[in-house]
Amino acid sequence: MKKDKSVRIKKQIKNIEARVRQSYGAYSSLQAQLHSIFGIITEVRLLFEEISTCFNELFEDWKEVMEKTKK
Fold first, then answer.
1. pLDDT per residue over 2-60, tens digit each?
2. What is the 3-state secondary structure (H, E, C) of the chain?
3. pTM of the full structure
């Protein structure tokens, strides 16, 4: 009976170790995906900054044209 209990406990420990490895693998995968998403968000932010600058320049040019046409 003691031997059966010991075998059962060892199986449970192996099962727990397998779950820990699986959880760590899932965590590592999630961490890599989040890193990738952060990179994409950074690229999108930079693109929006460029677009904002372009619109600002376009607006300034438009104001100049409007002032010239008033004269």
1. 778 888 999 999 999 999 999 999 999 999 999 999 999 999 999 999 999 999 999 99
2. CHHHHHHHHHHHHHHHHHHHHHHHHHHHHHHHHHHHHHHHHHHHHHHHHHHHHHHHHHHHHHHHHHHHHHC
3. 0.62
